[in-house]
Write a structure and sequence with these properties.
Layout: H1 2-25, E1 40-44, H2 49-60, E2 64-69, H3 72-86, E3 91-95, H4 101-114, E4 120-123, H5 139-161, E5 165-170, H6 192-217, E6 222-228, H7 245-255, H8 259-262, H9 264-271, E7 282-284, E8 287-289, H10 298-312
Parallel strand pairs: 1-2, 1-4, 2-3, 4-5, 5-6, 6-7
Antiparallel strand pairs: 7-8
Helix pairs in contact: 2-3, 4-5, 5-6, 5-10, 6-10
The structure holds NADP nicotinamide-adenine-dinucleotide phosphate.
The site of NADP nicotinamide-adenine-dinucleotide phosphate has 29 residues, from helix 2.
Length: 316
Amino acid sequence: MVAAEALAGLALAMGLYALLYYNFIKGASCKNETSLRGKTVLITGANTGIGKTTALDLARRGARVILACRDRGRGESAAYDIRRESGNNEVLFMSLDLASFKSVRAFATAFLRSEPRLDILINNAGVGFGSRSEDGFNLAFQVNHLSHFLLTHLLLERMKQCAPSRVVVVASSGHERGKIDFQNIHKPVDGQMAGLHSYCNSKLANMLYTRELANRLEGTNITCYAVHPGLVKSDIFRHIPVWLKPLFLPILWLFSRDTINGAQTSIYCATQEGIEKYSGRYFANCSLQDPKPHAQDDAVAKKLWEVSERMVGLAN
Ligand SMILES: NC(=O)c1ccc[n+]([C@@H]2O[C@H](COP(=O)([O-])OP(=O)(O)OC[C@H]3O[C@@H](n4cnc5c(N)ncnc54)[C@H](OP(=O)(O)O)[C@@H]3O)[C@@H](O)[C@H]2O)c1
């Protein structure tokens, strides 16, 4: 009797979880079958997580896919996996460390020398925690925002030649808790809470950058989109403190999506026809979203652009 009641309780809990999962956690799928034959895609941080899964999908659509990763072993191994799983031999690793402007510049030079096309740039790489970059900046601000700002700038001319082309910026709903404090946003921080704030600030920078980029790209036939992938089981949580893991990991396991579902909005913004009129806007679950007002502040977006230009050495 007790066993039967326990079984019924378990079945009910599983049913409720399935309802919750399919309605709220899993997210929408990108349904289009756009072919990318003849197109070149560059995706940063594609050796694991959302980036690797996005790269696999785009390789299956026939694109030439460049995986820009900081570690040769992990990058080559991901390229090998994607070539094998997609049957597409045009998947290559190239070395890029976003914690170093020198590496970004060297990467851009090598890319422009070897690749005649760039149709889709996906600024995906991100760090959740960390202190100081090689250039002395806040690590999350440099890797997630400044280096992608510089990379995009250096590759934009090639994208103009290949237009219509797209830039997809993997941001986060974490931008909602972000703040742009021009006095401090670039400074390295210590401690987990300060690190988390830096991450949210960098994701707000992603949102404002995408807005301003769209303004500056008007009339070029290059469009850009900011994406929230959802809460995704990935390596980004590898640095959470040991004491928090017993609480956080079960919650993550229950309430997050896998990388296949987490990659869907990036794939949608890279491939969906007809979204060009939404350049500069924010997408989640493969649909247009309205971000919080502070992520739509054009004056802050413009100032962030000018400050970023100075920090990466593009202006005096
Ligand atoms: N997971 C989520 O719940 C979630 C939610 C919202 C937004 N996002 C965003 O989604 C994007 C992808 O994250 P993910 O969840 O897939 O995390 P992930 O599995 O940790 O992947 C992050 C990627 O970025 C790379 N990366 C980190 N630092 C780098 C550097 N200095 N230079 C070059 N590449 C670097 C990593 O390379 P290594 O493997 O060498 O470290 C890795 O390939 C990030 O922008 C993240 O902010 C994720």
